């Protein structure tokens, strides 16, 4: 009988989840991964992982697989800036999280790492980095994704307080790097910028973290995190113009210098959303994204650094690794 811990992981076919899966395998865990039957599983090729076919929205498809697992890493989420039917995102991110936590508790899982997001956190109006304690309310949440992740994290916190759920919460910022197969909204920015498709930008900012550093942060939270606490897994705070300049430098292109006022882009965003409702394809820019861009999404990972030993490499290194992967697989 194996002495290696058996760990259940969701989202392993995705961007962050695949990086977390690799860390767990390196640390000697046996993995049982939940995957929908038609999921793209390229990120799991060559990995020794037991696949359980199921759906977060259907607990009956994975309850049996949770039995015997000592740990759960819930990384999966429906991450889209725009969604035609908000109920579908709520079903996965909120209802699916609630059902999975209850199933894990019933199965006797001893430790849980729940992947939330900095989307659930408060943002300082003066653009100084926010932390885990920056005030925030549901009313501050812009868009379906943020609202769903806020409610999901609130539910996990409720289960921790009132039902002794053995969970630690991590809040990744904006991960970039290899294996972004969809790609994510941020990955799309990198690909489009590499192609010269972003001639201008709005005045906003992001916290950029290498996906492998974020994955290591999950492991450190598993090893050292306190139940009920949450930890920002972030990196370097950069303006969007600075990010595009780094990409342009690697691509050998001229960096965009035109800074557009957000207000003039709203008609374009509404038009793109209208087209998206017909085509089903996610629009390049949305009204919610423009509303979010009003504040610079800058965060501090000081708590994770102090309590977990978390470290993040410079944003330029993360962007370079992402570009190298996108080039290798012919995205740009």
Explain this structure:
- This protein is of the alpha/beta class and about 325 residues long.
- The chain has a domain of about 210 residues: 3-Layer(aba) Sandwich (Rossmann fold), CATH 3.40.50.
- Helices cover about 40% and strands about 15% of the residues.
- The chain contains eleven helices and twelve strands.
- The strands form three sheets. It has a seven-stranded parallel β-sheet with strand order 3-2-1-4-5-6-10, with helices on both faces. Strands 7-9-11 form a three-stranded mixed β-sheet. A two-stranded parallel sheet has the order 8-12.
- Helix 3 links the parallel strand 4 and strand 5.
- Helix 1 packs across helix 6.
- It starts with 5 loop residues before the first strand and ends with a helix.
> What's the CATH class of the domain at 6-173 and 209-235 and 300-313, please?
Alpha Beta
Q: H/E series, N to C?
A: EHEEHEHEHEEHEEHEEHEHHHH
The low-confidence runs, each spanning 5 or more residues with pLDDT under 50, are: none
Whole-number mean pLDDT: 94
End-to-end distance: 47 Å
- CATH fold-level name of the domain at 6-173 and 209-235 and 300-313: Rossmann fold
Strand order of the largest sheet: 3-2-1-4-5-6-10
Task: Tell the overall outline.
Answer: globular
Q: Please count the helical segments.
A: 11
Q: What structural class do you assign from the helix and strand content?
A: alpha/beta
Provide the gyration radius in Å: 19 Å
Largest sheet: 7 strands, parallel
- Strand residue content: 15-25%
Question: Roughly what percent helix?
Answer: 40-55%
- CATH architecture level-2 label of the domain at 6-173 and 209-235 and 300-313: 3-Layer(aba) Sandwich
Q: CATH superfamily of the domain at 6-173 and 209-235 and 300-313, please?
A: NAD(P)-binding Rossmann-like Domain
């Amino acid at each position: 009988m194996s002495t290696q811990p058996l760990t259940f992981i969701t989202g392993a076919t995705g961007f962050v989840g695949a990086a977390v899966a690799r860390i767990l395998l390196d640390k000697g865990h046996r993995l049982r991964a939940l995957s929908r039957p038609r999921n793209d599983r390229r990120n799991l090729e060559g990995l020794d992982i037991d696949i359980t076919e199921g759906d977060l929205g259907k607990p009956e498809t994975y309850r049996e697989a949770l039995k015997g697992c000592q740990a759960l890493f819930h990384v999966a989420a429906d991450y889209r800036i725009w969604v035609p039917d908000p109920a579908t995102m709520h079903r996965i991110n909120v209802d699916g999280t609630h059902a999975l936590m209850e199933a894990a508790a019933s199965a006797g899982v001893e430790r849980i790492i729940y992947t939330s997001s900095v989307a659930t956190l408060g943002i300082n109006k003066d653009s100084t980095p926010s932390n885990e304690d920056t005030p925030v309310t549901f009313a501050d949440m812009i868009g379906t994704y943020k609202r769903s992740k806020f409610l999901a994290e609130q539910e996990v916190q409720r289960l921790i307080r009132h039902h002794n759920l053995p969970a630690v919460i991590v809040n990744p910022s904006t991960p970039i790097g290899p294996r972004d197969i969809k790609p994510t909204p941020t990955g799309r920015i990198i690909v489009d910028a590499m192609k010269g498709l972003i001639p201008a930008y709005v005045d906003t900012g992001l916290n950029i973290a290498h996906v492998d550093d974020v994955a290591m942060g999950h492991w450190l939270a598993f090893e050292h995190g306190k139940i009920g606490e949450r930890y920002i897994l972030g990196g370097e705070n950069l303006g969007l113009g600075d990010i595009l300049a780094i990409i342009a430098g690697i691509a050998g292109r001229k960096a965009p210098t035109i800074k557009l006022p957000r207000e003039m882009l709203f008609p374009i965003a509404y038009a793109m959303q209208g087209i998206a409702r017909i085509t089903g394809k996610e629009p390049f820019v949305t009204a919610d994204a423009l509303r979010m861009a009003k504040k610079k999404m800058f965060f501090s990972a000081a708590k994770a650094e102090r309590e977990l030993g978390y470290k993040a490499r410079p944003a330029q290194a993360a962007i370079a690794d992402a570009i190298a992967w996108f080039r290798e697989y012919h995205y740009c």
